[in-house]
Amino acid sequence: MNTTFCKLLAQSLGIAQPQIERTIALLDDGASIPFISRYRKEATGSLDEVQIGNIKEEYDRLRELAKRKESILSTIDEQGKLTDELRQRIEACWNATELEDIYLPYKPRRRTRAEVAREHGLEPLAKIIMSQRNDRIETTAARFVNPEVPDTESAVKGACDIIAEWVAENEQARNTVRRGFEQSGIVCAKVVKGKEEEGDKYRDYFAWSEPLRRCSSHKILAIRRGENEGILRVSIAPDDEQTLPRLQHLFVKGKGEASNLVAQAVTDSYKRLLRPSIESEFAASSKAKADDEAIAIFAENVKQLLLAPPLGQKRVLAIDPGFRTGCKVVCLDAQGNLLHNETIYPHPPRQDHAGAARKLTQLVESYKIEAIAIGNGTAGRETEQFVTHLRYDRKIQVFVVSESGASIYSASKAAREEFPHHDVTVRGAVSIGRRLIDPLAELVKIDPKSIGVGQYQHDVDQPKLKRSLDRVVEYCVNSVGVNVNTASKHLLTYISGLGPQLAQNIVEYRQTHGDFVRRSDLLRVPRMGAKAFEQSAGFLRIPHADNPLDNSAVHPERYAIVEQMAADLGCSIEELITDKSLKNKLDLTRYISGDVGMPTLNDIMAELDKPGRDPRRYIEMMEFDAKVKTLDDLQEGMVLNGIVTNITQFGCFVDIGIKENGLVHISQMADRYVSNPAEIVAMHQPVRVRVIGIDRTRKRIQLSLKDVS
Predict the structure, then answer these.
(1) pLDDT tens profile 26-79
(2) Is residue 499 within 8 Å of residue 477, measured between CB atoms?
(3) Smallest Cα–Cα separation from 37: which of 18, 24, 23?
(4) How far, in Å, CA of 161 to CA of 287, rounded?
(5) What are phi and psi of 482, to 5 degrees?
(6) What percent of the chain has pLDDT over 70?
(7) End-to-end CA, the chain
(8) Antiparallel, parallel or unpaired: β 540-541 and 482-483
């Protein structure tokens, strides 16, 4: 293990070095983040999955930086310019920007103006001018006239090109310009001439500027999208009147002819080389920072969506609404299996109210339906009103379900494999119903990017977004746990230690041999080795197993402890679980051993209290205002029910029961300063909002959470 890495990580993350070392040892040994955070608390000092994830991310970054340093050292060594001092400096550097600055003078370059001047023998003249001790420049330059350099003016110009490049490659000069960008950098956006109509949605940025240090991430992403679409021209620049004199001060040592030439070369270097180079740096770093903020918000939204309350195992009738093509209706059993499908036409143009009503009530009765799920897309509100006014033979709960991404799933390979004989409309309706039964189990089948939450998810760093979202999905699946006998291969894929192949093997083994009856049976699955079993077993549940611990988050490696507890109390494990008074008699300190401390014992006791508990909340019912059906029905001052559908850096969007979602700006969330909307609202949270603005032309609604009675 690289102790330098551990020391650096301890300093940057504020975590004790021994914790870092033990965590990295576990990661290097193939342990997953969920497994480490849940079952190796003694080793890590109870670090959570976020801290462990940060350690892994920074550890990977340092390893990549180490590879880059090896490449740089090799390149400089091949040039014969690698001194001991330079080697030590590179080896001691762990800042990527500083490392590239050190390397810049040695970096193989294209044929620049300075390189041409060197080829013409003008570097000695550049050194003479740079020393600023000789003011007989023309006389000196005459010695450098040759067939490639026709006169003294060309010689001086070539020498100044070399000086300009020296300045551009000077670390102190680059840091001076960086400070200028940090202190006074202004980001500007202007519309490309002739693109005004095409880029109307970017109108706010047609002639816009803001200090870079105060520019929010959503604005950076918006203008960069506009730039990529050819609508906007974007630039970042410091205050030249402040930055250039500071740069001149570094290199100009007097007022003679040579000093004047150096001053001209510095100005040329700043405008032609340094400023564009540092602008590119700041464009990249501001975009990266905006990406990180957007990804963090997106990841939190996805997490909340995946952990949305499930209705549970109930028989559901699901409707994918539509007007002309009708409403696709499916009936699902309590496990989400498709029992029946057909289409009804309660809306224009057919408007078969009576036939649709008769069919729905028959289906509810025939399939013993307990709840109805309605997609929130086109005709969703009209369908909800139609469904809720019908009379059924039993009490039926009606839920409006987000159908974001359902169309992507219905056309996917996974959906075709599951329903090869049904079209996309049936598959979409099934997905809507299953989202109500168990959102997590259904949404893992969809690329998280397509779930429909977050902002600018297609504009941010895609590999970084994928890593973040994969980690979120992995966390959600493992924190809830899955029933190994009913879980799809998509759900099993995210279980710690499994992956796609083992997930498929588990499903195939289940199909061939029937349900698993104990966790140890998993070892019979092809390619399920001891390591994969160790990593996954605690997150896989077997309801109604002979050993009740098989349906809990207690890891098989700790069964012996629970068995000893039961033996000490003279009871069975089942009695220990059901009788709280028995658990209260235990002295946990008696069970502390080498790698088992109080963190693990406390986790075991919490699990014995509620084995296999689902950490998700209970589902809440909410009804929209029946009088508000379209944008035209809205009036300022109205107070309405709504559901939070998306959270961004600048506020949240709320579904108030019409086609257009309204925006609660961050300034309208509370009677105090709010830095993060997630402090106030959560995904799918029912809220009461007040309408404070309506732009019917642009179909925009402004809402407030303040002063809502």
Answers:
(1) 999 999 999 999 999 999 999 999 999 999 999 999 999 999 999 999 999 999
(2) no
(3) 23
(4) 32
(5) -135, 150
(6) 99
(7) 60
(8) parallel
Confidence of residue 453 (pLDDT cuts 50, 70, 90): low
Query: Which residue pairs, CB below 8 angstroms and at least 24 apart, start in 333-341?
Result: 334/437, 335/486, 336/430, 336/433, 336/434, 336/437, 336/438, 336/441, 336/442, 338/419, 338/422, 338/426, 338/430, 339/367, 340/367, 341/422, 341/426, 341/429
Q: How many CB atoms lie within 10 A of CB 362?
A: 11
Query: Could you give the CA distance from residue 58 to residue 136 in angstroms, rounded to a whole number?
Result: 55
Report strand pairing: 371-375 vs 397-401: parallel
Q: Is the Cβ–Cβ distance between 387 and 413 less than 8 Å?
A: no
47 CB-near residues (< 8 Å, 6+ apart): 15, 19, 23, 36, 37, 41, 55
Evaluated on CA atoms 464, 467, 468, 470, the torsion sign reads: positive
CA distance 279 to 285: 10
Contacts of 180 (CB under 8 A, 6+ apart): 238, 239, 242, 243, 246
Residue 455 CB neighbour total at 10 angstroms: 20
Closest CA to 609 of 558, 550, 560, 554: 554
H/E stretch holding 211 reads strand 207-211
Helix extents (H) in 185-274: 217-228, 240-251, 257-269
Q: Is the pLDDT of residue 569 over 90?
A: yes
Report the 10 Å Cβ neighbour count for 175.
Answer: 14
- Which two tokens mark 213? 């240090």
